User: Fold this.
Amino acid sequence: MNAGSGSGSGHPLRRMRLGVALGLVLTVLGCSWLPFTGPKRLSEVSVFVTTDVNGGYPVALDLVFVRNQKLFDQLSNMRAAEWFANRDDLRRQQPGAISVRSWEVVPGQQARNLPVGDDSRGSIGTLVFVDYTAGEGSYRASIKDRSSVRLILKKNDFEVVKE
Assistant:
């Protein structure tokens, strides 16, 4: 008699606990099956250079992948001339915190779909620095949440276009 009456009164509560537990397990497992939906990693860049860029001289271009928020904030306020003058020291002082892809481009050059490789892995943001010889501009741009961009280097400035 007592055995049957005890199980009947706890049955709805047990069923509710089982339902909650099952729901939690499915939620955890379900999230692990979903693809990561965080920020996009930059995987390739295309560069288009006008014929009148930089007074007709080649220009240096750096993509800087930053893995530290404080350093990203610091570099985001740096002019390109300062970056190019100090980049080797910054790389030595911050090992693992930045990766750099460097190119030198010439007037009229077009380079499509240059691979970035694993340099962008783990980065919180990417900065572009262009070393124009004339002018006092910052010649810096931030690239966030883009897998592919086009950089258009003009006479005395540049533009980042999402592809």
